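stage 2 :: seqdesign
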């Protein structure tokens, strides 16, 4: 365990993970924008949310961050169910 006075090391994301992380962030922001405009059909919000969340799930698996893996796994599952219900 680190002591309080030890220097913290930041994880620097490089390569493909960096691009996927930012693409996922943009997709989630587009989903939120779609959700905030009532004139846009809900399917766009759900589709962008599924894509962004799945991309973030991939990033969290690359980082081996269990909290992000759990969060994005549950969100991807719930959003996929919502997408399937909407399409059927």
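stage 2 :: out
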């Amino acid at each position: 365990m680190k002591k309080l006075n030890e220097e913290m090391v930041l994880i620097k994301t490089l390569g493909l993970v960096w691009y996927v992380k930012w693409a996922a962030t943009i997709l989630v922001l587009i989903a939120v924008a779609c959700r905030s405009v009532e004139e846009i059909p809900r399917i766009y919000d759900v589709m962008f949310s599924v894509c962004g969340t799945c991309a973030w799930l991939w990033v969290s698996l690359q980082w081996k961050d269990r909290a992000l893996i759990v969060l994005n796994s549950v969100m991807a599952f719930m959003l996929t169910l919502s997408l399937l219900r909407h399409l059927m």
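stage 3 :: structure notes
- The CA atoms of residues 35 and 45 lie 6 Å apart.
- The two ends are 51 Å apart (CA to CA).
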